[in-house]
Amino acid sequence: DQQVKQNSPSLSVQEGRISILNCDYTNSMFDYFLWYKKYPAEGPTFLISISSIKDKNEDGRFTVFLNKSAKHLSLHIVPSQPGDSAVYFCAASRGGAGNKLTFGGGTRVLVKP
Amino acid sequence: EAGVAQSPRYKIIEKRQSVAFWCNPISGHATLYWYQQILGQGPKLLIQFQNNGVVDDSQLPKDRFSAERLKGVDSTLKIQPAKLEDSAVYLCASSLVGRAYEQYFGPGTRLTVT
Question: Do A97 and B42 touch (CB under 8 A)?
């Protein structure tokens, strides 16, 4: 039972353009969402998060949008840079920010110079 | 500040053999997590410790996997006997208590079972 899904396994984008990564979830009890970035041979690192009381959170080039009614969130990277090439994981938790994370399957992003 | 340390980084074993992974969390982080990441999938939580007590091991295959965190610091994850489907990256992460959203991950151990 995959409660968090990332339906696009890969994404290729030109440097300077926007990257849009999507994530869907099924458990309506999830109330905190995160994006992690992972380079090869390294562990995931936290990128950005959003609480269910918000619909948007922005941090520099990264913006996360949450649509609770659709159980959908997205990550926008603008402008995309070659260093953004990595695997991005969406994760969700329930019962506040302190509870365990459920991860999606990841989207591999390739930013072409 | 030193990050989460894991060893070994790579391990190749034959099926039915046993293997152990070691993790040293960030100093002061009472919560420690072990994840299994199969190729093409996201990390799946196997077990979560708070200090040396188990908080959640609902997805740990207890017939072959075991984990301990003696003294509430370092942790070991053991597989005995290994199966082909155990081939994966095993990630260790740590966080302050109640801050699962601020987990810091180690580099992982890539296990190949042949």
Answer: no
